[in-house]
Queue: 2 jobs
Job 1
Amino acid sequence: MKYKVENTKIVRNAYASYRMSDKVRLHEVYGSWSDEKEKAWNECYKECEENNGKNFRIISYGTWFFSCGYVFECEGKEYFRYHTAYNARTMEIKH
């Protein structure tokens, strides 16, 4: 695993919000957006693809930020990857 795995309240809450989200693209949440938002979205989406992730979604959004996440498998386990403007976190999904 190339990411530090956490099971913090922040990541658990983000996962709960992720499960209720159905937004994927910036145009679904913004009428217009900055180049920085587009760059951040592209980087997150690219990471998702590189990890063979699935169900990429925008979790929350506002004027100055958005967060996104996706699910991926590694070594037979399923993980949730969560990105904010400041960091990224990973949590193992326990079924």
Job 2
Amino acid sequence: MAFSTDEVSVHGTVTVWARIDRGAVDRLLRLLQPGPGGFLDRKLREQFNVAAKVAEAAARHPERICPLIEAGSQDSPDERHALAALAGC
């Protein structure tokens, strides 16, 4: 994973390698490679775009994100503490 910034936004690049231990699944995916690979790439890209937008919003407006982090009832206290530190709360 690598990140770069310009004056407006943060850009991320993720490189993923997959190892498939099942021979039949490996052969099937090699036949269908553009389909599943492209679909997974799109889904990963969508998720990282969402995460990047949230990170940018948190950096610009910590007063909005800090109450959400503090209220995060599903997160462990350690996770909330780490998120709060990253957001500058």
